[in-house]
Amino acid sequence: MAKLTLDMLKKYVFPRHGAYTDEVLKGPGIGEDAAVVRITKKLYMITHTDPITAAKKNLGKLAMYVSSNDIAVKGVRPKYALITLLLKKNSTEDEINSITAQLDETAKNLGISIVGGHTEIVENLDMSIAVVTQIGFSSKKPSSISEIKPGDVLIQVNEAAIEGTAVIANDYPELIVQFDEGALELAMSYIDKISIINDALKLNSLGVKVMHDPTEGGIIGGAVEMALASKLKLKVDEEKVLITPLSRSICDHLNLDPLKLLSSGAILATAKPKKAERVLEVLNGKASIIGEFVKGEPSLQIKRANGIEVYREPPQDEIYKLTKKTEPSF
Predict the structure, then answer these.
(1) Which among 15, 69, 136, 170 is least surrounded, fewest beta carbons within 10 Å?
(2) What's the chain look like in SS3?
(3) Domain 145-322 class, CATH top level
(4) Nearest residue to 266 (alpha-carbon basis) of 330, 225, 223
(5) pLDDT tens-digit profile of 273-317?
(6) pLDDT band at 30; cut points 50, 70, 90
């Protein structure tokens, strides 16, 4: 199962949106984390669907965290969730209990009500898949990535590769046996650093312009999506990117690029330079200005140790180097 190219998405997915109405203010598109639908003049529904297809353990927890993040980066608290569970062949009762208990507990902790969904065992499926649709409401229209302007700076909040580090430690511990027990336990605990709801709502209150959730493809993937959606060139300096020493060490050991590794838990936000400096003051070490949007070909230009790299499409996520399958569709 391979991820569609940007060209294929533009041809076969994004323009085929059914009976569009005036109430749909933002539908499918590159870099847009959630759809926005106007319910009344002062009420907007924000909704998004996300699959988890590359996790063995913590499937329920990851599914609830990652999908809720896409609502939160719109400055909105998620309220309701619908869940589709496609369980692998020969799933045991204990496995089913673990997944649904994780979904239930995580939803309770986040204040989200599970209001429906679908569950079945699929005989030709080798790994269970969870697909979660989240819904939230806002009294004002959320901003869009297309509103980014030249001169806006890119702020990273929280470290890159948190999600990827957690998945590696929990699902592939045999690959990092060289690390001591304390490091392995710490990496496993990163699973509970993935939710960004509180940080996103804090950023929204500070007046950042736009936020984006960098999941697949990591910081580079998220940055490319923002550049394409804004139709601007985005210049990023790798030295400014936040990453924990443990994530960097694990990535170095496995020959993975941490900037292309699953990065739920981080937030990419934009603001005018003065506003961005205020954000850094308030967050006190949790944020870094890593780039700037300028006029030019829509693309990411990132300064790295070996020179300048240019991306015109999101890269393949590094996590799939550890599996026998290719990337999931989204």
Answers:
(1) 15
(2) CCCCCHHHHHHHCCCCCCCCCCCEEECCCCCCCCEEEEEECCEEEEEEEEEECCCCCCHHHHHHHHHHHHHHCCCCCEEEEEEEEEECCCCCHHHHHHHHHHHHHHHHHHCCEEEEEEEEECCCCCCCEEEEEEEEEECCCCCCHHHCCCCCEEEEECCECHHHHHHHHHHCHHHHCCCCHHHHHHHHHHHHHCCCHHHHHHHHHHCCCEEECCCCCHHHHHHHHHHHHHCCEEEEEHHHCCECHHHHHHHHHHCCCHHHCCCECEEEEEECHHHHHHHHHHHCCCEEEEEEEECCCCEEEEEECCEEEEECCCCCCHHHHHCCCCCCCC
(3) alpha beta
(4) 223
(5) 999 999 999 999 899 999 999 999 999 999 999 999 999 999 999
(6) confident
Rounded Cα distance, 146 and 231, in Å: 8
Give the burial class of 21: count Cβ atoms within 10 A of its Cβ; 0-12 exposed, 13-18 middle, 19 or more buried: exposed
Boundaries of every domain in the chain? 6-138, 145-322
pLDDT digits (tens, 9 = 90+) for 187-234: 999 999 999 999 999 999 999 999 999 999 999 999 999 999 999 999
Give pTM, 2 decimals. Answer: 0.93
Question: 6-138: what CATH class?
Answer: alpha beta
